[in-house]
Amino acid sequence: MSAVHPGSDDADYPPAFFSRGDETSDAEFYAHPRFVTHIDDGAIDAVGALYEELAVRGAVLDLMSSWVSHFRDRPEALTVLGMNSDELAANRQARSWVVHDLNVDPGLPFGDDAFDHATCCVSVDYLTRPVAVFRDVARVVRPGGLFVCTFSNRLFPTKAIRGWLYAQSQAHVQIVAGYFAAAGGYDSAVARTCATSPGGDPLYAVWATVA
Hints:
The chain has 211 residues and is α/β, with parallel strands linked by helices. It has a single domain (2-209), classed as Vaccinia Virus protein VP39 (Rossmann fold), CATH 3.40.50. The protein is 25% helix and 21% strand. It is built from six helices and eight strands, in the order βααββαββαβααββ. β3, α3 and β4 form a beta-alpha-beta unit. α4 crosses α6 (169-183). It is globular. 42% of the residues are buried.
């Protein structure tokens, strides 16, 4: 585990960094539910172990979520935000759900200090306006709360941003840490390569505390 201190802001990103191979509507792409998991069981267990270790509980916002959230113990009040209503409604750990396209509107439809923590599991690579999203997460999460991003090497390549596709795994860690730094409102980001099953999907995590 290591502290990450990238000095990054919007001006540091090349013009095509946030472009994608498929620029058609995300709402259309996610219109049909996909009741599948996007990482293997070892990586899923690593996500749950990290949430448990970091004490991600209470009122939690799970961004870009689906029909499963990978908590070992259900948070007291989990809100899932994503793109497909059928998937979100099927999430048994969620108390409430919201359909919201962060690439159209990075502003979150919640009040200030509404949550104890926030998470984003294997989806940060699809954000086209990540700095604005991270900035608003800092608004809706109470000071001292965590925003925890986890990701692997599996994705929908046509919907991932080009800056992510052309980077290696350790560079992905720096990209996410850079979002925290550029957004402001957080302490220094912390990064980890999580332990997963030998030969299985890798899992990387970057998180920061809301200042």
